[in-house]
């Protein structure tokens, strides 16, 4: 899901970052937010709505909505759309979600 070639823009992806999401090994790149790396790895289901328990994905990507909250390195309610990915991060959904929703 990542743009790798573009007729005008040049993307220089370097420095792979390894992390886990719900115990699955994943790879992102330096400069990625957690949410961008998850999206690039095919993860679309980030959380569930509080009232109706409906699936939520990446929504605003600017830290306002809360749809992207996850547990990161044991800390709950981390805004993954605003948090840069780091080597060996442990990212977990705060709700029970299938890994490829």
What is the gist of this entry?
This protein is mainly beta and 101 residues long.
CATH A-level architecture: Roll
Ends distance: 15 Å
**What name is given to the CATH topology?**
Ubiquitin-like (UB roll)
Number of beta-strand segments: 7
Spatial strand sequence of the major β-sheet: 2-1-7-5-6
The number of domains: 1
Q: What percent of residues are in strands?
A: 25-35%
Shape: globular
Mean of residue pLDDT values: 86
The structural class is mainly beta
**Spans with pLDDT under 50 lasting ≥5 residues?**
97-101
Order of helices and strands: EEHEEEEE
Helical residues, percent: under 10%
Largest sheet: 5 strands, mixed
Q: What Rg is obtained from the alpha carbons, in whole angstroms?
A: 14 Å
In the CATH hierarchy, what is the class?
A: Alpha Beta
Keywords: Oxidoreductase
InterPro entries: 2Fe-2S-bd_N (IPR042204), 2Fe-2S_ferredoxin-like_sf (IPR036010), 2Fe-2S_ferredoxin-type (IPR001041), 2Fe2S_fd_BS (IPR006058)
Protein name: (2Fe-2S)-binding protein
GO molecular function, one term: oxidoreductase activity
What would you say this structure looks like, in words?
This protein has 101 residues and is mostly beta strands. The chain has a single domain, classed as Ubiquitin-like (UB roll) (Roll). 7% of the residues lie in helices and 28% in strands. The protein contains one helix and seven strands. The protein has one helix spanning 34-40; strands spanning 16-21, 24-29, 47-48, 55-56, 69-72, 75-79, 90-92.
